[in-house]
Design a protein that fits this description.
The complex is a heterodimer of chains A (795) and B (277). Chain A is 29% helix and 24% strand. Chain A is an alpha+beta fold and 795 residues long. In chain A, strand 9 and strand 10 form a beta hairpin. Chain A is globular and about 90 Å long. Chain A starts with 22 loop residues before the first helix and ends with a helix. In chain A, 57% of the residues are buried. With 277 residues, chain B is α+β, with helices and mostly antiparallel strands. The radius of gyration of chain B is 18 Å and the shape is globular. Chain B contains twelve helices and 14 strands. Chain B has a five-stranded antiparallel sheet with strand order 4-5-10-6-7. A four-stranded antiparallel sheet of chain B has the order 11-12-13-14, sandwiched between helices. A three-stranded parallel sheet of chain B has the order 1-3-2, with helices on one face. In chain B, 33% of the residues lie in helices and 24% in strands. In chain B, helix 5 runs antiparallel to helix 8. The chains are: A alpha+beta (795), B alpha+beta (277).
């Protein structure tokens, strides 16, 4: 399986750089987001949020708010407490004995983070709702905030009284403890490192929003939400609000990004539903940007201790990892499982014989954490790729060489990792070779040395990271073994309508990815039709009733594969109809230019449209065949898929200011067969910058009282295009044997690769000063201070 | 994201704006480009009862030479400053700075008068005005007066403008080919400076040095220590070592005071060493 074996670049099918079908309406404003919807009679909700990280709730005085014109009601947690059928859901209780508090949409006794909802204002307009929020007076009895993870783990201040501890769970993966002990006892080299994963704010370009529209007569309820998971939300509305599932329809209209932050069930969604039902009118809420910073989940938040054992040549013999993971104040939908999505990957791309992983999840008085682009895998990759650099220094070899000595050999795939996974396919070294070539690694190293010799205050650094990730969530049985509550399949329906339009119904829920284009290309390839004649329906549970939605780089390797398989069903049926009507054997038919032709007799042919019309009229179908040309598949993948790649960054550090400039960045990624290379490149560009942002710019900064100090985009430094160089991309193609398309996910890969790459480059630049670590984000002041300290130590 | 309720009035002349300011007093705020005021209102850090929109007073948008001075209308947008041939020839420092403010959207809306009147210590144009020893013209109920830049910035986001005065014009010496420099240290291109500085070695008639500092205190500042050193013939490095003299820089999320003091010295040196042309 090498790149050359795989046919790609079909004109407008799989492999084509087709412009995205979605873009015209998204870019012109024609697409409608939740906040754009005109909903006559809707009342606006405003959330009164705790300004304290930890406080007992006293009296709520709504009188001033209710005196504001347009303010209709104010509800507290106590007012709504008895209306919930269940507390907010956590779908991933990772251990049998995991401790988690009841999490009500509106806090009842205590607020446990800044942003926790303590009351809701219902008003005629958004303006009145916000004025009302400002006027509600709540008596708070502030308690000690729990901000630091180790402090949380010490139980000095226990947040949830009923649990008696802040430690929610400890999850371990140690397949062979003796082997690990032996490896460390016999090691020629041992590396012990501690890394901090700062909290990140996902910052989707569209904040969240929800509108709940109750049916006035039929009792049905339609919920519009800026969500990645309308199907899961529908189930959870039933579970928490007690609305029979048959009465609920959830629509995710145009959704402006999520990065995992909209893979959740949020209090505001449930409050909107509960109040719409209670008041009998539509309710709606749109999140503000600063509100988004505290009210929407955050990502990362870990202390990582990693140890490598290696032999004299630097061949790794064991990896041992201990994590302390920040859950935040409550468990959101999959909060406890996020660190465990990395649990199997701390051995990275390396052939590691012995493996030990342990993670303890702790509560703090901060916004809950949950999935954020990469979710567990960026953290794992960061730790192993930083530690490999330390090992290279310890052994005294080049950072490329240490990797070459440890890569899983390409002839070992499918590879059974000591962590228990089976990596489907891989060939890592060519991505390293190509990435080094793209940045002129030899030339850069020479320039680095020249500057060092000259005493230049502009230091060059070169950083490398090779990653592998598991994505395409997920085989349902594997999810069961991890105690996850749902399955990981995906559904697709492909119909050829009587006029020849091909209609695809997908259970995935795009929020910027380009599923309409990619699914059209897959169908075009399979059925020989023009992708423009394919219509893709999604994101509405009335149109697409079965689906598991979009996250974890799953849409293509699970949902796209389902589309391909449903297309195969359509083609099979079309062949049977054509062979019946053309009076030939099915094997004698070939699909050429959208026609089923009798081989050798091209005039004997039926277009797909003609076949579809025959299937529709049903006048002359084979005996026993059902009318209509439809394929329907629910695909449960047999394994994850394992995309990989190597990234190389070149940075320049200005010693006088501490400023770090990304001079050059190359990424050579392998996501198997590419359906639309332009979309792959777009995912990589955005992902790489988002990962580099963790390295250089972004951090949710909390003070000792648990207050988020940088909730606005003035202070939370999301980078722009001006901060990054033109990224050099190339790829290899190692198809996945897991699925018939040979595809792997690419939505998270860029983010996973780039964070360690950039930090490794900074450390490489400063290594001659004795600097081996720099905290993320590596702000100019941090870098300046580190250099100054190192210089003073040298002097 | 949702401002408190306010009344909106559009002035069709400066005199009408002055009259409206007199009528509403401290409850009123002038709205020009809106790029400082509106974010404060949307965060509810400012809640003026009345906005008086002067944004359509087109006669306040101009750049013209007048003797040894360049006169700039208060409503001239950053983009128009950056692309003004007159300004590029006569005060290239100002044109250069205007071209680096924020991002293109900001530069097409924000105005020089708004930036000066806001008096944000983190803004670049006030520091440049100080370096150039410029003046501003204010019109109030009693007529016009000219305020020296050294008198203009009186406290954090406070200026010498009276509540019923409208800033109408900025006057700077036509320094022409006098050497100038500008340095801005940011984490992201569109950010306010962590520290910045503007230097100009000459006011058109003499070699009088001017050095303005960005984000080194509660107000836009001059660096008199550096100016004194330059007057005495000190090297850029020696002069720049005095950049933080007498300053009280903020300690905030983006930088400690100590780091700002260090940056001020580095940036002033670089500005002096890299003087244009």
């Amino acid at each position: 399986m090498t790149a050359t074996d795989v046919p790609q670049a079909v004109e407008r099918g799989v492999g084509a750089r087709l412009p995205r079908k979605e873009d015209a309406r998204l870019l012109t404003g024609e697409a409608r987001f939740v906040d754009d919807l005109s909903i006559p009679g809707a009342l606006w909700l405003g959330m009164v949020r705790s300004p304290f990280a930890h406080a007992r709730l006293g009296n709520v005085d709504a009188s001033a708010a209710l005196a504001i014109p347009g303010v209709r009601h104010v509800f507290t947690g106590a007012d709504l407490r008895d209306g919930w059928a269940a507390a907010m859901p956590c779908a991933w209780p990772v251990t049998e004995d995991m401790k988690a508090p009841d999490h009500w949409p509106i806090a009842v006794d205590k607020a446990c983070y800044v942003g926790d909802i303590v009351a809701v204002v219902v008003a005629d307009s958004r303006y009145a709702a916000v004025d009302g929020v400002d006027a509600v007076e709540v008596d708070y009895d502030p308690l000690e905030a729990v901000v630091d993870l180790e402090d949380a783990a010490s139980d000095r201040t226990v947040i949830h009284d009923g649990l008696g501890t802040n430690r929610s769970y400890t999850w371990t993966l140690v397949p062979d403890p003796d082997a690990v002990e032996r490896a460390f006892a016999e090691a020629a080299h041992v590396v012990r490192e501690r890394y901090l994963q700062q909290r990140l704010i996902p910052v989707a370009i569209e904040p969240r929003g929800v509108a709940a529209v109750p049916g006035v007569y039929g009792g049905d309820l339609t919920v519009y939400s800026a969500t990645q998971i309308p199907h899961i939300l529908k189930i959870m509305i039933t579970a928490t609000c007690g609305v029979p599932e048959a009465k609920v329809r959830v629509i995710a209209p145009a959704v402006g990004g999520g990065f995992g932050s909209k893979l959740n069930i949020y209090a505001e969604e449930l409050i909107a539903v509960a109040l719409a039902r209670r008041l009998g009118v539509p309710t709606r809420w749109t999140e503000g940007r600063s509100e988004n910073s505290v009210a929407t989940i955050q990502g990362r938040g870990q202390i990582q201790d990693i140890e490598l054992a290696a032999d004299a040549d630097g061949k790794v013999t064991a990896v041992r990892v201990k994590l302390l993971a920040d859950m935040g104040a409550y468990m959101q939908l999959v909060t406890p499982g996020i660190p465990l999505l990395g649990a199997f990957l701390y051995g990275g791309v390396y052939d590691v014989p012995a493996y030990s992983f342990e993670c303890t999840g702790v509560f703090t008085t901060k916004t809950p954490t949950d999935a954020y682009r990469g979710a567990g895998r960026p953290e794992a990759t960061y730790a192993i790729e930083r530690a490999m650099e330390s090992l290279a220094r310890e052994v005294g070899v080049d950072s490329a060489e240490i990797r070459r000595r440890n890569y899983i050999p390409s002839d070992r795939f499918p590879y059974d990792a000591s962590s228990g996974l089976t990596f489907d396919s891989g060939n890592y070294e060519p991505t390293l070779d190509r990435a080094l070539e793209l940045v002129d690694h030899g030339g850069r190293r020479a320039e680095q040395q020249r500057r060092r010799d000259a005493g230049d205050t502009k230091h060059l650094g070169i950083g490398i990271a090779t990653y592998v990730e598991m994505c395409g969530l997920a085989p349902s049985r594997v999810l069961a073994s991890l105690n996850y509550a749902a399955g990981g399949w995906e559904a697709a329906t492909v119909r050829v309508l009587p006029t020849g339009t091909v209609q695809v119904v997908s259970g995935t829920t795009p929020h910027g990815q380009g599923h309409e284009t990619c699914w059209s290309q897959i169908v075009a390839d399979k059925l020989g039709v023009d992708p423009d004649s394919v219509e893709v329906l999604h994101s509405d549970t009335a149109v697409s009733p079965i689906g598991m939605d979009t996250y974890g780089s799953r849409s293509l390797p699970v949902g796209g594969v389902a589309v391909a398989m449903a297309s195969d069903q359509v083609l099979d049926k079309a062949r049977r109809i054509a062979s019946h009507q053309l009076e030939c054997a099915e094997d004698d038919l070939e699909l050429v230019d959208g026609e089923l032709r009798v081989k050798g007799t091209p005039t004997k042919a039926m277009t797909l449209q003609a076949v579809a019309f025959e299937a529709f009229s049903a006048h002359d179908l084979p005996d026993g065949m059902e009318p209509n040309l439809v394929g329907q598949v629910t695909y449960d993948p047999p394994n994850f898929v394992f995309p990989f790649g190597t990234h190389v960054a070149v940075v320049e550090i200005d010693e006088e200011t501490g400023g770090v400039e990304l001079l050059d960045y190359a990424a050579v990624d392998d996501c198997g067969v590419q359906v639309n290379p332009m979309i792959v490149e777009g995912q990589l560009h955005g992902g790489i910058v988002q990962g580099a942002a963790q390295a250089l710019w972004e951090e949710a900064m909390y003070d000792d009282d648990g207050l988020l100090r940088n909730p606005t985009l003035t202070d939370y430094c999301v980078p722009s295009t001006a901060e990054v160089p033109s990224i050099k991309l190339d790829h290899t193609v190692t198809p996945s044997p897991t699925n018939p398309l040979g595809v792997k996910g690419i939505g998270e890969a860029g983010t996973i690769g780039s964070t360690p790459t950039v930090i490794n480059a900074i450390v490489d630049a400063l290594a001659p000063l004795g600097i081996t670590d720099i905290a993320m984000p590596a702000t100019p002041e941090r870098v300046w201070a580190a250099i100054r300290e190192a210089r003073e130590a040298q002097a | 994201m949702i401002p408190a309720a306010f009344d909106y009035q559009r002035a069709s002349s400066v005199d009408e704006a002055v009259g409206l300011l007199g009528e509403h007093g401290d409850d009123a705020k002038l709205l020009a480009g809106g790029h400082s005021l509106l974010p404060l209102m949307r965060l509810r850090l400012a809640a003026p009862a009345v906005l008086i929109d002067i944004g359509r007073l087109d006669d306040l948008s101009y750049v013209r030479s007048d003797g040894g001075q360049v006169l700039i209308g208060a409503l001239t947008r950053h983009q128009d400053l950056a692309t003004s041939d007159e300004l590029r020839d006569q005060v290239p420092l100002l044109a250069h700075i205007a071209g680096q403010i924020g991002d293109p959207q900001v530069r097409h809306r924000g105005t020089i008068g708004g930036s000066i009147a806001h008096g944000d210590p983190a803004s670049d144009l006030p520091a440049a005005l100080l370096a150039l020893r410029g003046t501003v013209v204010a019109r109030g109920p009693g007529g016009e007066r000219e305020i020296a830049s050294d008198e203009m910035f009186t406290g954090f986001l406070e200026t010498a403008l009276a509540p019923d005065e409208v800033l109408t014009e900025i006057r700077v010496p036509a320094v022409g080919a006098a050497p100038w420099g500008f340095q801005k240290f940011v984490r992201r291109a569109q950010d306010w400076a962590i520290v910045g500085c503007a230097t100009v070695l000459g006011n058109g008639t003499s070699a009088e040095p001017g050095v303005g500092l960005v984000h080194m205190g509660a107000t836009p500042l001059r660096a008199p220590g550096v100016e004194d050193a330059l007057r005495s013939g000190a090297s850029p490095r020696d002069a720049a070592a005095r950049a933080d003299e007498g300053t009280d820089p903020p300690d905030d999320l983006n930088a400690s005071a100590e780091y700002r003091r260090h940056l001020a010295q580095v940036l002033v040196r670089r500005a002096l060493e890299s003087t244009q042309p």
